[in-house]
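Repro:
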Amino acid sequence: MSKTVVHSSGDVFIDLGYSTDEAAILQMRADLMADLRKFIKARRLTQAKAAEILGVSQSRVSDLIRGKWERFSLEMLITLATRAGMHVTLKKAA
């Protein structure tokens, strides 16, 4: 059995067939979700306490922790990050 190896472009979302603009938004969402999960873990917050800090329901925190990215818009993730005390900025691509 032969296997085909496909080399990555360096952007998983481009590799999955998303357009450049869609890939950029998906990457931002993925990064913000990861940062929010790190925030919760680093502070050893329960889902209930994280929900209180972020101003959302415990079930929304569960969705966040479980990586259900399709349930969060970029705008919502920016809002949650801001509520967590993070400073969200965009940087220019090289």
